[in-house]
Amino acid sequence: MDSDFAVYTKDLVKVYDGGKVAVDKLNLEIKYNEIYGLLGKNGAGKSTTIKILTTLMNPTSGEAQVLGMDVRKRANAIRKRIGVVQQDESFDFTTVENNLKVYSMLWEVDRETAKTRINEMMDLFDLEEVRKKRAFEISGGQKKRLQVAREFLHDMDLVFLDEPTVGMDPEMRRRVLDYITHRAHGGLTVLFTTQILEEADYICDRIGIMVNGNIRAEGTSKFLKEKFGKLKEIHVRLSGDSNKDEKQKVVDEISSIDGIEEARLEGDSVFVLGYEISKKIAKIAMVFERHDLGIESMESSEPSLDEVFLKVVNS
Amino acid sequence: MKTPSFIRLAIRNIVVNTDPGTIFFMLGLPAFYFLVLGTMFQSIIPGVTVNGSVVSYTKFLAPGIIGMQALTAGNIGGSMLWSDRRWHMFEQLMVGPFRRLDYLLGILVISTVFTFGGSAIMLLLAHFVSGAFILTAPSLAFTFMALILGSFLFTSVFLIIAILVRTLQTYNVLTILIYFFLDFASTAFYPITNATPVALRDISMVNPLSYITNIIRSSIDTGYVSSVLTESLILFVTTVVIMFISLRMYSRLKTVA
Fold first, then answer.
1. Which of B3, B95, B103, B252 to mutate to test the interface with A (most CBs of A within 10 A)?
2. Which of A92, A204, A257, B76 is least crowded, fewest Cβ atoms below 10 Å from its Cβ?
3. What's the pLDDT tens digit per position in B172-210?
4. Does the beta-carbon distance from B93 to A57 stay under 8 Å?
């Protein structure tokens, strides 16, 4: 038993009946109180991993422990201490309020606590106006909010959130993410999957990029950007009028510098894309000076997590 | 004191399923059969012979309507599993603090509660329309036994359908067909006599609802329970076999669709 980690897998494999390998020797170590983001395209194996860890599905081989307990041997004990927001919509055919009341009752939350928490959740997730409406009558975004709100009614040590913000508007998405962060600060461990990279960037302590059932890259958002984002772009804005031919000559000369992938001219701006570009800024500036072109400003941009993600996924 | 998991699931089933449609299906439809169909036929059927005694048609019909409650409750029980699978609540509950057996017990408990609740209401209704029934300890014991076995048996039948069928249309068509077929090809509405077509007589002979109805009818209409011992045994064995098949299929059912 490895109780240093809230989630621990070693060489975890899941092969479906048809022979499709959904999870392929996955090694995952998620610390307690950590918000861990699992990123990946559709079919990368994120949901299958969650289904194994939440004891819904048995792995084909390998080890999987949740809160220090083996998913095969102690499934019942694990389920009493976790919360799960599934990717698929799930709700009871009753009112929004009853959905929350019933769920609290199922999790044995005492009546007074349940009442307080339900009111808090109604307010936080903006469900007050649909309180008496039946769950199947509300919008997709509201259903998702209901699903998330429901899961935070009961006490737990670890929550699995499988794309919990799908269908939500940006404001609500931000509110949900802030609430998850708030709960994590209160001691909750979170395993979060998303395809929206800004979300992972915003709340996750660590991110794992999943490709073909395995973690291809892992670390903090900053680490991933540094590791995979060495390809940077600088934007040089030119001052005053200058000859277009002269500008093109500059672009051609910069393109020939070692490590520069691309240089292009757009109006009065020159964009330069290359590796370790900060070391080449002086060289680039000298080219402009040689051609007597004044520089108004020069900005270097960080790669977005999207760029990192695409690079890892496509590599 | 902690409420057992299956009781919490049963309470959830009541809250979720006590919508007007279900209540009408459970109580309105049989009450309609009894009050409208029963009283209409009574005007053209002077009396029906049960165990050598002649009883009014509504008195004859009442045990059939009571037995029907087990069929209706079983249908509702099966639809709970189907609906929970369709709307991913089965999956959601199975990642909660429950075992698979708790979920099944939750359905069986609620089917039994619905069976007895509905039967008590139908018996009360019949009491006002047809007069007093014979409610002795043996007649009540046999009626209880028939209703419990009936409830378990029909819940198992509809659980099997809920496990096998994926689409809403197929599920609806199949359950409606089975429901009305079992209802009308049984002794619930008509006595089986020599004049009954052979095919229908044979079907009603293998229909569990006939056995449930016959046991209740003999018990509360005539108080003559010794005649239903064989029928009770057949009902018991059938229930055990169908429950076994249903349990096997349920245990192999994949949680994730």
1. B95
2. A257
3. 899 999 999 998 899 989 888 888 889 988 999 899 999
4. no
